[in-house]
Amino acid sequence: SAVISQKPSRDICQRGTSLTIQCQVDSQVTMMFWYRQQPGQSLTLIATANQGSEATYESGFVIDKFPISRPNLTFSTLTVSNMSPEDSSIYLCSVDIRNRGGNEQFFGPGTRLTVL
Amino acid sequence: AQSVTQLGSHVSVSEGALVLLRCNYSSSVPPYLFWYVQYPNQGLQLLLKYTTGATLVKGINGFEAEFKKSETSFHLTKPSAHMSDAAEYFCAVSEFTGTASKLTFGTGTRLQVTL
C-alpha cells in the first residue's frame, strides 16, 4: 500500500493567480497521476507523471495550464495557472502500486480549490 | 478505449436493506475493475477490485461485487446497509499499460441510507 499526503488540503484563490499543489508519497513509485474532480462530478485524469520525463497530458489538458513537476520518486507538484472560477475543483494525486493482486492505485486526500 | 456507466446517480435505501449499485463497463481488453468509496470531504478509498480469477470478489465493510463478462457488469452489493455506508461510490475500469494502470471512472452514485 501507500500513504499519500497533499498540501494544501484546501485553498481559496483569486482569479488570475496560480496555485501549486504538492503530493508526497511514503514510498518510491514510478508513476503518479493527477486527477480533477469538478463539483458533483467524477474524476477526470489530467496527466500521468513519470519521474525523470515530461508528464503526459490527457485530451483537454495542456502543460501551460497545468505544469507538473516530478523531481524524484516520492514527490510531485501540480500547478493550476492563471486560475478562473471554472478551475474550482478537488485535485487528487494517486500512485500506481504493483502488488500480488496486480496493479492498484492509491489516492491522496485531495486539495479542494475554490477560485473567486 | 474503455468506459464505465453507473446507472443511478442517487440511490436511497433503508438501514438494513440490500444495497445494489450498478456498473457496466466497456473495454477492448480483459478489464481490471474497481469500486472506490469517497466519504464527504475525503479522498478515494478502494473497496474491492477484480483482476483475474474468482468472479465474485469481496471487499471491505461487507461489500462484494461480481464480474459478469457476458453482461459486461460489475455491480456492487451489500446485504444490509448501515448508516455509515452513506457516501459516493465510483466504479472504475483499468487499462494496464505494462508499467501502470490508467483508470477511467464512472460518474458516481451517491448512496443515502435512511432510518
List the helices and strands and how they pair.
The complex is a heterodimer of chains A (116) and B (115).
Chain A: E1 4-7, E2 10-13, E3 19-25, E4 31-37, E5 43-50, E6 56-57, E7 68-72, E8 75-80, E9 89-99, E10 102-107, E11 111-115
Chain B: E1 3-5, E2 10-14, E3 19-21, E4 24-26, E5 32-38, E6 44-50, E7 56-58, E8 64-68, E9 73-78, E10 87-96, E11 101-105, E12 109-114
Parallel strand pairs in B: 2-12
Antiparallel strand pairs in B: 1-4, 3-9, 5-6, 5-10, 7-8, 8-9, 10-11, 10-12
Helix content of chain B: under 10%
| SSE sequence of chain B, one letter per element | EEEEEEEEEEEE
Q: What's the β-strand tally of chain B?
A: 12
Shape of chain A: globular
Strand percent estimate of chain B: over 45%
Radius of gyration of chain A: 14 Å
Report the β-strand fraction of chain A as a percent range. over 45%
State mean pLDDT of chain A (0 to 100 scale).
92
Please trace the helix and strand order of chain A, writing H or E for each element: EEEEEEEEEEE
Structural class of chain B: mainly beta
Question: What is the compact description of this entry?
Answer:
The complex is a heterodimer of chains A (116) and B (115). Chain A is mainly beta and 116 residues long. Chain A is built from no helices and eleven strands.
Description of the molecule:
The complex is a heterodimer of chains A (116) and B (115). Helix content of chain A is 0%, strand content 56%. With 116 residues, chain A is mainly β. The termini of chain A are far apart. The model of chain B has no long low-confidence stretch (mean pLDDT 91). In chain B, a hairpin with a 5-residue loop joins strand 5 (32-38) and strand 6 (44-50). In chain B, strands 2, 5, 6, 10, 11 and 12 form a 6-stranded mixed β-sheet that branches. A 4-stranded antiparallel β-sheet of chain B has the order 3-9-8-7, with no helix packed on it. Chain B is mostly beta strands and 115 residues long. Helix content of chain B is 0%, strand content 55%. The chains are: A mainly beta (116), B mainly beta (115). The A-B interface holds A 4, 30-31, 33, 41-45, 48, 92, 94, 96, 101-110, 112 and B 32, 34, 36, 41-46, 49, 51-52, 90, 94, 96, 99-108.
